[in-house]
Amino acid sequence: MSRAVDGSKRRNHRKKILKLAKGYWGRRHSNYKTAKDAVVKGLSYAYRDRRDKKADFRRLWIIRINAACRAEGISYSRFICGLNKAGININRKALAYLATEDADAFKAIAGKAKAALGA
Prior knowledge:
Elements: H1 8-20, H2 32-71, H3 76-86, H4 92-101, H5 103-118
Helix pairs in contact: 1-2, 2-4, 3-5, 4-5
């Protein structure tokens, strides 16, 4: 039985890979063999980084909250401890938004956290 080298399935598969490699530099966007390697690596990075993005944003939120806490004279860890003791359940995304956009609301929350630590 002869080997198919120019059938529609094979051509469609190659076209799909080359379409995914659109915009790559040099031979990686036009040569199937190098494009295939680049696309596989790119897709694996995309898969990994979709998960890493969540941790990156959490880190960013913590940095913003910490900066606002320091301005209020309390460390981030003490602030979070105070929130837990005060029974305030608010996520870090919302806290970071308050810290950057609504300083008065964050100040009020920080005051409650400090009061809970003092008691």
